[in-house]
Amino acid sequence: MSPMNGLSQLFPTFPFVPGGLFWVGLALIGAGLAGELGRRWLGFPRIVGYAVVGLFAGTLGRSIVDDNMIAQTRVLIDMALALALFELGHRLSLSWLRANRWLLFTSAAESLLTWGLVAWVLQWMGASPGVAILAGGIAVSTSPTIVLQLKNELRAEGQVTERLMAMAALNSIYAATIVQVATGWLHSEYGNLGAALLHPLYLLVGSCLLAWIVGKFGHTVYTRMSADDHYSFLVLVGLVLFTLALTRLLKLSMPLTLLLAGIVFKHQDRQPHVWPTHFGSAGSLLIIVMVVSLGLPLTAHDWVVGGMLALVLVVMRHVAKLVGVVSLGSFSGLSLRQCMALGLALTPMSGLAYLLMSDIARLYPSTGGPLASIILCALAIEQLVSPLIATWALRFAGEVRSNGGGR
């Protein structure tokens, strides 16, 4: 054994040099306090407090937040998203969609309107066609993590809430599909014709196949465990994280795979298992980490490059979703009041948008750079504004069972 080299190995050295874990822990403490104080004093959903702390941490800690730390938080964002996407897929009832086809048609029309309007306006304002089309596709998405967090926190139940869950899942599928197809078009723009044809096909077919295998296998294993076993949910968590690892290993679409796997898992039974309440608790910490982490990469340069376009994206996105649902929602049995509430409640945008954007930026930095500036700025706005809008909308619909303040 080698001897000690002085007392420095036994006692702390001065000045202290805290590592990344110190600052992450401090940010999470601040996020938890900010979320609870905002809920108690202002009646805000906790997730707004988490987002505020994330933006402050990214701005004030710019000298501390480096590329390595941001890359490490990507793993946590992926894990939080994977859990939320699988749960949202599990909540989607195909039999309900078959019985209420107008809901499916409304969702498709609203998503196409969002994509088209955002892409057209951004291009009109000077964005390149590739950036505009991809930003429009990402804008279609509705955050699964924020929607589920708000539903659980507000204890929301009713027609609007159920449609919100279904349309959030469908919007995630649409956004992932649009971005994968648009990425194929981007391959052709850069002269990669083989990739333009094969890559989107591989992503779509491979993701569907992996989702079918995971859903079937997961259901087979889960049904052999006791339904009231408090630890059986660990099988689901392990299944989701293992699937996440497979999508990275095989370079498939994580959103499509996890959503479709949740759907396949649910529909193996005529009377599917009730979703375990423990799963939301298991993912709650990851959701906090995800929301805080999304504020870290944002810089002042991003606001200069993409701030105005991000603001336009947010406004056009909100308008398109509201108009799309109000125009067609009555055909699925909703009143005008419920249609307005649903259109507004669809506005949250969070980790899924970041995931889709960062995958494009990794493939084509010249397109991904301007796109990242727009999406990061849009996420900063949406994570502060859209949870408040969605909360008000669910209250407006009369489906909130919690007053949002106190205990």
TrEMBL record:
**This protein's record includes keyword Endoplasmic reticulum:** no
- One Pfam family from the UniProt entry? Na_H_Exchanger
What is the recorded membrane topology of this protein? Multi-pass membrane protein
Q: Membrane-spanning residues where?
A: 16-35, 47-65, 71-90, 102-122, 128-148, 168-187, 199-219, 231-250, 275-296, 303-320, 340-357, 369-394
Tell me where in this chain the Cation/H+ exchanger transmembrane domain is found.
33-394
Residues in coiled coil: none
Localization, per the record, is: Membrane
Name the InterPro entries for this protein.
Answer: Cation/H_exchanger_TM (IPR006153), Na+/solute_symporter_sf (IPR038770)
In terms of one coarse class, where is the protein primarily found?
membrane
Which key words are in the record? Answer: Membrane, Transmembrane, Transmembrane helix
Keyword Transmembrane found: yes
Q: What protein am I looking at?
A: Cation/H+ exchanger transmembrane domain-containing protein
- Native source species: Cupriavidus pampae
